[in-house]
Amino acid sequence: MNEILESISKFKVVPVVVLEDAKDAIPLGRALSNGGLKCAEITFRTEAAEESIRLMSNHFPDMLIGAGTVLTTEQVDKAVAAGAKFIVSPGLNPKVVQYCIDKDIVIVPGVTNPSGIEQALELGLEVVKFFPAEANGGLNAIKAMAGPFPKLKFMPTGGISENNIGEYLSFSKIVACGGTWMVKESLIKNGEYEKIEELTREAIKTVFGFQLKHVGVNCEDEGEANASADKISDLFGFQKRAGNSSIFTDDGIEFMKAPYLGKKGHIAIGTNDVLGAMKYLESLGVTFNKDSEKYKNDKLIAVYLEEEISGFAIHLVQN
């Protein structure tokens, strides 16, 4: 897959932004970036779009900024000159698509039917936008069309929210979803950037299913692990469960029978997709201990981060 599309796939969700005033570009970019989403699609529906792309691209060079609702080749030129790294259009205009291809510009045009998909494939595209998604049958429609066209992938937009994005992303043919719920026009207009950052963090948590699974405590030996587990179980009525290398109490605390990774122990963070979460975190500069990777049926189910936090190793585990 193209490098830009690969980067989009790591974020899983692309905020689709309408900016009426370019002064909002920098604080919005900061809110998205701080919230963990270093990408945005700025729609070309307003006079402020071009300058907003320029400002956001210049102030946040590590963000992946694209231009949406692009309808003409002239808009393509303006968007790219302003710093847009990819183009998104509501429909498939062969002239605009071919123009982007000839200039080596990534474009994701909108389609809603098999005829549009065949046009996209004829033009050599890898990913198309399915828009408006919910109004055109949603995930069931995408699955029905994906069958005859196994090489094409989709970026649905329109009606996607925190309530259904998980369902969409569970389908392997979807690289990412466009969404507006964390960047509603009313929030931007009222300058509620802290709220946007909060909603962005919640979106990441929802997309990857991040949750605390358990805390592992390093013990010197099996005797200490047993004694610690017994104490916790006796005090709080937790169920004790012994394994080969550790002893759990109610799945929330794991006492290691011998010191393992982490000076004090480890913290396990669950995710719906270990490999996807790993790619996302790598895009934020996180590094991983590749020797710690664990697989089941060729699927990555656990991996440790290189960095410890307050003496605890951190690892991702499959929910």
UniProtKB/TrEMBL annotation:
Keywords, ordered alphabetically: Carbohydrate metabolism, Lyase, Schiff base
Gene Ontology molecular function: any one: 2-dehydro-3-deoxy-phosphogluconate aldolase activity
Annotated metabolic or biological route of this protein: Carbohydrate acid metabolism; 2-dehydro-3-deoxy-D-gluconate degradation; D-glyceraldehyde 3-phosphate and pyruvate from 2-dehydro-3-deoxy-D-gluconate: step 2/2
EC number per UniProt: 4.1.2.14
Catalytic activity: 2-dehydro-3-deoxy-6-phospho-D-gluconate = D-glyceraldehyde 3-phosphate + pyruvate
UniProt xrefs under CDD domains: KDPG_aldolase
Taxonomic superkingdom: Bacteria
PROSITE patterns: ALDOLASE_KDPG_KHG_1 (PS00159), ALDOLASE_KDPG_KHG_2 (PS00160)
UniProt-listed Pfam families: Aldolase (PF01081)
Family from the record: Belongs to the KHG/KDPG aldolase family.
NCBIfam families: eda (TIGR01182), PRK05718.1 (NF004325)
Assembly, per entry: Homotrimer.
The protein's name in its UniProt record: 2-dehydro-3-deoxy-phosphogluconate aldolase
Source species taxonomy: Bacteria, Bacillati, Bacillota, Clostridia, Lachnospirales
